[in-house]
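Researcher: We're teaching a course module on how sequence relates to structure. For the next exercise, students receive a sequence and then see the predicted structure as tokens, so they can try to spot secondary structure elements on their own. Here is the exercise chain.
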Amino acid sequence: MARQRIVAELGRPETADETAARKAAASQRYRSSKTFRNLIAALIVCVAIVAVVYFGVPRGTPEPPEPVDVDVAAAAAVETVGHAVIIPDAPEQWRTNSARIEGGVWRVVYAPATGFVRVSQAFDAAEDWVARELGGFAPTGTVTIDGIEWDEYDLASPVDNISYGLATSAGTDTILIYGATDADAAAEAASGLGEQIRDLREELR
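Model: And here is the predicted structure for the students to work with:
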């Protein structure tokens, strides 16, 4: 007769049912540990594949935006409105973001080193157009640039990221230079516009 193993926890030999239960539990623990190891291995493989795809597939550098030709856009605007539009003489280092007619306004948007500057010409502008563009602020003074007197708007608290503006009339049109900018940058945009504004005043009077 085979000698039965005494189990310390029981203080007696195992019964057949207890032996079967113990072996089943051990088998279950083994299968569980094996499944967990397989899961970890699968995750490592997936991460490795993603890494190979991400680092191994060449990705091109995005093409720089096409430069905006203000003169060409201005010529098209003249055809649309039937009279001259202003063409700013901005510094070469200012990037031109756009130049087009939007909602009855010829607008050129520049990006200096910081902020942005919009040079706008509103056709047959309403009297309150400038106030609406600048959040209702009234002029804080006047300044003369290139022989043209401008209303100056030094906004105490920026409106829609607009902190400064210059406005003047050109016959029935209104010229507004404004943006996230300061007096010096706005004056740079306004310089050189004197003759064009005087010509517009003659043309549109």
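Model: If you want an answer key for the exercise: The beta strands are 6-7, 12-13, 95-102, 105-111, 116-122, 141-145, 148-159, 162-170, 173-180. The mean pLDDT is 84.
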